[in-house]
Specification:
about 400 residues; alpha/beta; eight-stranded parallel barrel; five-stranded mixed sheet; 21 strands; about 30% helix; elongated
Length: about 400
């Protein structure tokens, strides 16, 4: 649905996405499969349009978190393989098979449930085995004293009726960290993963068709992790230090406008709590962008947003629907002027650093009332608003 308001919106540069894909594809090589991670609505970028773009560009696989995310792609015409990284209830196994969706298997209980359901309908569910090599979250635990029992558990799942173990994977915990301890830990995880694969393949007498472990940090720094498939997340969308090193482009630009301009005398408290007080006559711009749109309240009195005349400081506490910026020295900034929250001219990394978080969290936080505009060749080809309206 198209928004009727020129309020706050995000521009998704599909040309930048295709460029990033091409750079990363060339980096890992054409013999390595490419999985695009599009969970959480492609980290706020819009999973349908991002997936269509990746499918057209030649990507091999997609990854989502849930069956609902996978079904959204299927009903919107996405044909390529989809891997669900998270939990799927056993009652949904028939739908997984019907729509050709691959499911991660993380433990014996899940494997048994999925096997039983597949056998009931006399069909085969494609799975990828998840190995916990040190993320300490999901997967068959195989480190140290758990190696033998982990191997046995994986083999048990592989041999269960109704399951086709196409792949095996793990997830690195600190591959995006550069300190010596993190490098050692990543190398330990990789060695353990390789040891698990070697032993499982030896005992089952065949090889997995897809082995994968390379997330963003690993794609950027550890070519030895590429194996059969890579799955960059943040890197694909052009954010973070590694993206900058590789010359990748940010895919999302978030914009808002000046809705009102007020002039305040010195000594005027601004917004809730009065944490900012003007020290001189101040020209203040009110923007229709607040924490309900995804602007973290923690950035109050800290962030700067980009005007056509340079950076303007956010003053006072960020409100649910609004925030205020100081435009005293910017006479050309008027009502209706565009303001870039983050994007090509105001790097998202600066905001995430100020908020003590990562760019992922800021893009995922862009709320459903913020329209997405999809850009190709500098023209809007599609608009998407996730608010529900019935005529």
């Amino acid at each position: 649905m198209e928004s009727t308001l020129r309020r706050t919106w995000s521009e998704i540069d599909l040309d930048a996405l295709k460029y990033n894909y091409s750079v990363l594809r060339n980096k890992v090589g054409k013999s390595v499969k490419f999985l695009g991670v599009v969970k959480a609505d492609a980290y706020g970028h819009g999973s349908i349009m991002v997936s269509k773009t990746l499918e057209e560009a030649g990507a091999d696989y997609l990854a989502v978190s849930s069956i609902d995310e996978a079904m959204e792609l299927r009903v919107n015409g996405i044909k390529m393989p989809i891997l669900i990284l998270g939990h799927t209830p056993k009652e949904q196994v028939e739908r997984l098979i019907e729509y050709d969706i691959t499911q991660a298997v993380t433990c014996k209980a899940k494997a048994k449930e999925y096997s039983n359901e597949a056998v009931k309908i006399n069909k085969i569910l494609k799975i990828h085995i998840k190995v916990d090599t040190g993320m300490s979250r999901l997967g068959y635990l195989c480190d140290g004293d758990f190696f033998d029992t982990g191997i046995e558990g994986i083999l048990e799942a592989i041999n269960m009726r109704g399951l086709d173990a196409e792949g095996i994977f793990t997830h690195f915990a600190v591959s995006d960290e550069d300190d010596e301890k993190s490098v050692e830990y990543t190398k330990h995880q990789l060695k353990l993963f390789k040891d698990v694969i070697s032993e499982v393949e030896r005992r089952m007498g065949r090889k997995f068709r897809i082995r994968h472990c390379a997330n963003t940090g690993a794609v950027a720094k550890y070519p030895e992790t590429y194996m059969d498939m890579v799955r960059p997340g943040l890197l694909l969308y052009g954010y973070g230090a590694y993206a900058k090193e590789l010359g990748l482009k940010p895919v999302m630009t978030l914009k808002t406008t000046v809705s009102t301009i007020k002039i305040y005398p010195a000594g005027t408290p601004v917004s809730y709590g009065g944490i900012y007080v003007t020290d001189k006559t101040t020209r203040m711009g009110v923007l229709p962008y607040g924490y309900a749109d995804g602007f973290f309240r923690a950035l109050s009195n800290k962030a700067t947003l980009m005007t056509a005349n340079g950076k303007a400081f956010v003053r006072g506490k960020i409100c649910m629907d609004m925030c205020m910026i100081d435009i005293s020295d910017m006479p050309d900034v008027e009502v209706g002027s565009e303001i870039e929250v983050f994007g090509k001219n105001n790097p998202i990394e600066e905001l995430s650093d100020l908020a003590g978080t990562i760019p992922y969290e800021l893009t995922c936080a862009v709320s459903k009332r913020v329209p997405r505009k999809y850009i190709v060749n500098n023209e809007v080809i599609e608009q998407e608003l996730m608010l529900r309206m019935r005529g």
